[in-house]
C-alpha cells in the first residue's frame, strides 16, 4: 500500500514537526493500492508540491510526487 507524506507544515516551515501524512476524515492513515492511485488523488485535489513523497509502507520504497508524476 502507498501512503502520502510531507515535511511541509501549514505555516510553511519544513520539518519542524516531523512527517505529516495524508489522513482520511476519521484521522486514519489514507492508503492507496498503488502509486498511480495516489497520483490520481493528488492530481484530482490539485496538490502539486515538490515536498510530497509517496511511500510503499511495506518496503519503504520512496518516490517523490513531482519528479515522477
What does this structure look like?
By secondary structure, this protein is an alpha+beta fold. The chain is built from 1 helix and 4 strands. The protein has one helix at 35-44, and strands at residues 2-6, 20-21, 52-56, 62-64. Strand 3 and strand 4 form a beta hairpin. The two termini are 18 Å apart. The model has no long low-confidence stretch (mean pLDDT 87).
Report the structural category: alpha+beta
3D shape: globular
Low-confidence stretches: none
With strands numbered from the N-terminus, the spatial order across the biggest sheet is 2-1-3-4
Count all strands and give the number.
Answer: 4
Provide the succession of SSEs.
EEHEE
Task: Kindly report how far apart the N and C termini lie.
Answer: 18 Å
The Rg value, from CA coordinates, equals: 11 Å
Helicity range: 10-25%
Reported for the largest beta sheet, the result is: 4 strands, antiparallel
* Number of helical regions: 1
Mean pLDDT across residues: 87
Estimated share of beta-strand residues: 15-25%
Features of this protein?
69 residues, alpha+beta, 4 strands, 22% strand
How are the elements arranged and paired?
Layout: E1 2-6, E2 20-21, H1 35-44, E3 52-56, E4 62-64
Antiparallel strand pairs: 1-2, 1-3, 3-4
A few lines on this structure:
This protein has 69 residues and is α+β, with helices and mostly antiparallel strands.
Amino acid at each position: 500500500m502507498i501512503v502520502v507524506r510531507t515535511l511541509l507544515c501549514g505555516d510553511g516551515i519544513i520539518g519542524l514537526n516531523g512527517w505529516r501524512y495524508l489522513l482520511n476524515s476519521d484521522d486514519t492513515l489514507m492508503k492507496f493500492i498503488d502509486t498511480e492511485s495516489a497520483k490520481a488523488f493528488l492530481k484530482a485535489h490539485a496538490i502539486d508540491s515538490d515536498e510530497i513523497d509517496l511511500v510503499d509502507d511495506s518496503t519503504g520504497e520512496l518516490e517523490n510526487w513531482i519528479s515522477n508524476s
